[in-house]
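Dear colleagues,

As part of the handover before I leave the project, I'm documenting each prediction I ran so the next person doesn't have to rerun anything. This entry is a single chain, and its sequence is reproduced below.
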Amino acid sequence: MDEARSLESSLASREICLFSFHFRMKDRFSYHFALLKKPLGILFALCLAFWSRVLFTGQVLLPGAMLGGFAPFGGQQSAPWTILQWDALAQYFPWRHFAAQSLTRGEIPLWNPFQFSGTPFVANAQSAVFYPLNFPFWIFDTAFAFGIAAFLHSVLASFSTYFLARRWNLSRAGAVLAAAIYAFCGYLSAWALLPTLFATASWLPLCLLLFEKASDDEKPGAASVGLSLALACALLAGHAQIFFYILLALALRQPFLRRKWRGLALLCGSLGLAVSLSALQVLPTLELARIGHREMTPPTPADWNFVVSRALGHAPISATQSAWNWSDLQSFFVPGAALSWGTLNENFAYIGLVALLLGITGVFCSRKAKYSTTNEVSPDKISSQKTSQTPNLATSTPQNYAVALALFGLLYALATPLAQFFFFGFPGVAQMGGTGRALLLWSLGLALLAGFGLDFGRARIKSGVFVPLVFVLVGAELFFNGFLTQPTAPRAQIYPPTTLTTFLAKNSAPDARVLMLTPQRDWLPTEGFRAPKTHPQGILPPNGAMVYGIYDVNGYDSLSLRVYRAFIGSAQQNGPSPALNGNMVLLDSPTQTLLDSLAVRWVVTPQGEPLRTGTGQKVLSANGCDVWKREISGPLRVSGASFAPGWRDGKYQPQSFRLGGFVSLCALAFVAASLGFKWSARFR
């Protein structure tokens, strides 16, 4: 009887504890939600307003007017042209559209049969098939999903910046301002059309926040796992260069932490787990990089000079030489400023004049570092008469770190010896894009400093108008810049069906491929430097065939098969790519033997031009183009599959993907077990 009573008493006590725990957690949640809902609600509303054009008006976040320069869509030389924003139509829309169609059919799109006579697809990290926040592309219409994905990432960037700023003891107003400046800064706004860079950059503040928590908190387990998940998402988002900058930002934070060596150890461990979680993407990408056209050769001084000529503050005077150009500095002050080499994406440092002034104020203002007692006390803490204190951030000097982060990003973007050190000293950096992309770090650092500057101003300007006025001015500048830098278009303007594309989609096949003849000279990068920028001639964007299901021998990819390019380049006098544009394959003078080997049945030329690739019968003349049918001779047939390892029994089954999938599943099981153990421990 005593044992039964003891057991009954124990169970009752456990039920009371669970009941008490439930209501205590409910009270805490209700209290914190009440504190957070106003600033987070403001940020959410700002994100809705910023992207309202592409969420509520029927417009899509794509430069549809640029398609007007291609023959099937009008062939207008007066069509607008921006060399980097064009990638939204040339690469990202076709890729997202193709991935969505494959996933809808229940297939993982390991292989893309429509580019380069067939090429790996998932293995290119920018396909981002496994990135969780790409789900709008798999659910909604692809064109509309660009705007939805941009909105989600703005919410992510703003919320995480807000929590980071609050951890640094900024006021709610200062934290909201910092979050808004980073989420809508010129850098992110200009890159919003290119989703991999924009998505990866959105994870930076959350990674910093979790890194600090893991380093400073007494129990770092949950924060360390969270950091691993955030880093894995940033890696899966698909932009290696921006992920590298995130790692640089975390490494730069480490000397400013209170527990420096602990932070370094946790960062290494979290990074290892993040790579394991994303192994199903990382291993195929490494395999493709090994056999891709961007060979990991040691960089040369000529390579560095080429990068410098396109860096912030430099104007190219030849292919590999540059001169200092002060006019580039207008990107700090002028919304939508056109830079010296023709595109605002690479070197756009705009955050608004008011935000810039507040950021400079934040550099020089002094804040007394001390324990801060929260003004708001939750109900359960009132009852226990305990004072809550935030972690002592005095020794972690977040304000100094923000200054260092901004200066680091600026010096890197200017192609100073700092950037040169990483260019020559770290493998793979030389194969990345321009140094101006490091302005990501400048933008976040200045945004946080602007929050410090606002708090400094509030303490000295005793006026209720000061904070609302600052928000109105900052918002007006950033929203106006967003309007200037984000071209939109009606959905019907994005890859509409035409007589030409319908015919080629119906008649092309793996054994009856298509060659669209586009002169390579029209696709030099220098096209982007001309004023006014004339639209290059072309039949379809190099990856446009993917949208319609046309089997093309050309393509545009940052990681195409090196041997395929060498094979087709050996049969063409001027090589497979335009000069200085090695990511593109454009055959404009192939031999008959090469066309036979690639099983090219259809050749498309601009209307009225003769066929210069042998003989053929004209079967269609439409949309400013002529379609020629040619006879294929010879027994040899070659495709991209001939040069890609991983084909077994007629299916593309790369061992790197299978191994990567296994490693990712093991890592995911470890994370689930860790979180489950921690959650169950709460009830003990």
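The chain is about 50% helix and 5% strand. Residues 14-29, 368-395, 527-531 have pLDDT under 50 and may be disordered.

All the best with the project,
I.
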